[in-house]
Input
Amino acid sequence: MTDRNERQLTRIQQKNRELILEGALTAFSAKGFRGATIDQIAEASGLSKPNVLYYFDSKDDIHKTLLTALLDMWLAPMLSLDPSGEPLDEVLRYVRAKLDLSRDYPRESRLFAYEILQGAPHLSEILGGRLRELVDEAVKTLAGWIEDGRLAPVDPHHLIFSIWALTQHYADFDVQVRAVLGPGHDPYAEAEIFLDNLFRRMLTP
Output
């Protein structure tokens, strides 16, 4: 009986943490770290402020937890680049994966953008450590394909930057994109066609 109750408590705790993180994502993506408050996070999560602070030590703790999980998700497509694969297919698959993340997780993208615009105070170690290491690996793979003549000669770092910029734009500037396109457009479906054509033309040897 005790074990079952303990398992039930663990599930409840996990659910409450998820509610808090979901509420925090709403608050942070709308107002940034400085603008969001514990009270707003509590209200968005449907829990009391003391309950929020039971699970997390501070607003900073919640923010770091969200950003770490976000970065893991954001980096996953880069980890899937296969050095033994067909280079153009691998790059275009990465572009589509990044565009899908922007479409499916726009709040997370805006949260990350807020953090970067503030000078990345909560991510500086990760950006200069793990992220840089993963990018270095991807650059090595891209450079090898370029050296072998399997991709057109481009700067691998700036190729990655351009993919990030051109895909995350649709999440971070969603209101602007939809206002300019007007009704009757699917920004992501159209972007997928455009970006596939753009990078295919640029990278085909």
The chain has two domains: 1-56, 58-203. Residues 40 and 104 are 24 Å apart (CA to CA).
